[in-house]
Amino acid sequence: MNYLVKYLQLLQPEERDKLGLLVLSERERQVLIALLQISADDSISKSDLLANLGISSSHFDKISSVLLDKVYAAIVPEGGTVLLYDLNRRNLFGHFCHQMKKQEKVLMADAVLPERLAEFYSTCFSMLQRITRKDYDAELLREIGEKYLASKPGATPGDRLFTEAGILCSSIQDTAARGAQNRLGDEIEQQLRALEPTAASIEEQNNVSALYLYYRAWVSFYTLIDSRPDIRLEYLRRAAGLCERYPDILPEEEQALTFGRIAEAHYNNSDFAMAAELYESVFTSYPNTAAREYYHTTKYIQVLIILKRYAEAKNLLDERFSVFVENREPAMCTMASLSYAKLHLCSGHLDLAKYFIDLGFELIAKNVYIQYEIEFRLLETAYFYLVGDEEFADTLAGKHIKYLQSKGFVLKNSRFYPWFPLLVQAFIAEKAGVKKLSKKLEAKLREFHTGPACIYGILLEMIRSRGSRSDLSVRTHSSQLF
Fold it and tell me: Which end of the chain has a smaller Cβ tally under 10 Å, C or N?
């Protein structure tokens, strides 16, 4: 797809308004108007567009390239790495890489000071750690890390810690996304331990960014590989201390992310009211960063769902994600669909939940972020039970247990995933009078009411308490999808 069309699709209404102020030639304006129409209706083909405009394909591509730069300047007048940040947070990996190489070429041609080049590579290196898992490129991340070191002739142990810790951060997230934490967890821990002597020997004041990434790597490890809430919180506090002591070194984004992770830690520890309070503080204190911080936005939304603050959750979803849903942007729309499905299931709007479950299955990129596919499968099971099709829910539960086994998630090594469909089957047997829920399953049901699993605990209670179909309040608002 044309880079400009894709960028236009993801602009918020207030951002599109800025395009009216662009100084354009008559032909440029004609092309921009045509591309805005395409961004709203992607059924229009390029050949039809060229015929309507009366220009050649090469002329069109040249005008589109010029227009893209002008649109960038209208939306992000600061340019430079601020523009890279904008593309990064919009999940436009192709745009980001293209612009990164373009800016690198300019810097190299201008023969800028090594310090400036190192700063550029450092910024790009940090941004590459925040891309979605479908775009994760370990080779590119290491390449930029090596360029950062090469731009610093006197690279210090702290500089090397910065790159190695950053690479491990991304590797941990990718490992968890692929469901390979059980297989690779020990190896990753050994790599982190190997960096301990360097982290202990360097001076904090001269290596703030390196220590920050090192702490962040441990936070990720104790979140995604080996769940240890107390140790995770300790490393989060260390990272937060660096943010507070060195606000001029660690950018606002890192400060916001760190405090967002502390809110997430309270969420993981089942302190939902405190998590909501801290998230609200982050979103208030760092509005610019929070507006593009989609991961923590979804976590905040889940906290609001657990607290039954449904209207706030939906408003936040609509505000931050509706543009991605409308344009079917794969990664972001999948993330949004998962949150919408949880919201509508928990609040009883089952027809809307089904819409977003189906949309999620349609968009999901299998084997890229396995958690999404697993969650949609669990939500699908809950949906069919709640609408009264218990037989099909039972069939799905068995099917999904086998799927989870094929991915290495079994009762012995998994705290939640395979237990959800097993509990659904147990509820069906209990309701039929075949077998009462065992003490072990009762304990597991209580465990589902903790941390991030709590939404599934809520759904399990809804399933267990569901009476006959006539007792079920199923609200239908299919005309209000967004």
Answer: N
